[in-house]
């Protein structure tokens, strides 16, 4: 799939299309969403859609890209500096119970929910993997097989959590997990990243602790 | 889905059907496999199939159940005794490069491969989760939300590894990972189980180290 253009000179039309994508995905299966649905509901010109995207899959990729990269984890790294565990724990503790974070979780659970599609799974996998490698200052093309597998273990695990979270929320409501438990899980996942997926040369043990 | 009967008084017919299931899954999509295909190729009477199973999904569930429970991890626990990390590392080190283990891995990658189906994903998830809980002597109905999510993180992660393993094997051949790396990953996964999913009352820290 060709990457959608990530530079954008009409953010409001783009954002309306992205928001409409999430809204429609909450209502129906991905395969039952059409470009026509998007442009009508977003009140966007059809040409505007095709200016930004070649096809619906590209909008889905972009929407998931944005959601993944809005995460506190993705934003805590960058510029070659890998945030340590204390930094990350504090960051998560501050953010995890905000309305914004809940909205983000709700959107991401749609990727594993009943309306999902292999296209959405793949887009989440690719974006999440890329975001995590960037936080750890690793180059995607320079990852050894063992780190490669651990990275996919972590991304697969995050999907497993989203899937379970969805079922638990449906059964027990959204307050199923205490903030301290959510922080503990998020910390554990990041710990696993630091332990296993740092650039070579960094300590392989309990980095950041 | 009703559970297939796991007691079986005609193991050879049963085993032929299971082997045929894996063979056909290596050749075509799960949805393109029929009960007729199975009984013809396994040389089993149609009545014999329906004596053991209500439908094809039940055979798939049973085949995946057997494969999951043949794993060294599943077999290392039991009788209320949780194997510690040293025990597990030694066990994996001995088994991971055997022909039997390679065959098991090849079968399990079919569950996440191009011929997969949501039914197979779900069967793997349910069986793997059950097997891990049993190794840890945890009752499925007595799992707190935090452990619940960590358990699904681990099962999702194992699926992520299988999926990546499949792609890496296709690109680089089966010898992509050294035995020591495979052992390190298997050990890390078990470590995560011990750290996060033990019955309450057990130490929450680095159990078994």
Verbal overview:
Two copies of one chain form a homodimer. The first copy, chain A, has 209 residues and is mainly alpha-helical. Chain A has two domains: 11-54, Homeodomain-like (Arc Repressor Mutant, subunit A); 64-196, no CATH class. Chain A has ten helices and no strands. Chain A has helices spanning 11-25, 35-42, 46-52, 56-69, 72-76, 85-95, 99-112, 118-135, 145-172, 179-196. In chain A, helix 7 (99-112) packs across helix 9 (145-172) and helix 8 (118-135) packs across helix 9. The longest helix of chain A is centred in the last third of the chain and has 28 residues, at 145-172. Chain A starts with 10 loop residues before the first helix and ends in a 13-residue tail after the last helix. At the A-B interface, helix 9 and helix 10 of A face helix 9 and helix 10 of B. Chains A, B: Keywords: DNA-binding. Chains A, B: GO terms for molecular function: DNA binding. Chains A, B: It comes from Bifidobacterium erythrocebi. Chains A, B: InterPro entries: Homeodomain-like_sf, HTH-type_Tx_Regulator, HTH_TetR. Chains A, B: This is Transcriptional regulator, TetR family.
Summarize the structure.
Chain A has 209 residues and is an all-alpha fold.
Please give a handful of descriptors for the protein shown.
Transcriptional regulator, TetR family (chains A, B); 2 domains; Homeodomain-like_sf (chains A, B); mainly alpha; Arc Repressor Mutant, subunit A; homodimer; DNA-binding (chains A, B); 10 helices
């Amino acid at each position: 799939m060709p990457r959608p253009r990530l530079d954008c000179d009409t953010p409001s039309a783009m954002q309306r299309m992205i928001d409409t994508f999430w809204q429609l995905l909450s209502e129906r299966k991905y395969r039952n969403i059409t470009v026509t649905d998007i442009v009508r509901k977003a009140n966007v010109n059809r040409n505007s859609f095709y200016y930004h995207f070649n096809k619906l899959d590209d909008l889905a990729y972009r929407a998931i890209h944005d959601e993944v990269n809005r995460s506190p984890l993705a934003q805590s790294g960058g510029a070659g500096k890998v945030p340590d565990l204390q930094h990350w724990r504090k960051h998560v503790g501050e953010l995890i119970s905000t309305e914004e974070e809940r909205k983000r979780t709700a959107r991401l659970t749609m990727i594993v929910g009943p309306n999902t599609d292999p296209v959405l799974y793949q887009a989440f996998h690719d974006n999440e993997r890329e975001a995590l490698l960037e936080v750890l200052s690793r180059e995607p093309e320079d990852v050894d097989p063992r780190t490669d597998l651990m990275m996919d273990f972590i991304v697969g695990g995050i999907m497993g959590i989203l899937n379970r979270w969805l079922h638990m929320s449906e059964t027990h409501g959204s307050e199923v997990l205490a903030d301290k438990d959510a922080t503990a899980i998020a910390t554990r996942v990041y710990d696993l990243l630091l332990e296993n997926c740092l650039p070579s040369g960094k300590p392989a043990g309990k980095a950041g602790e």
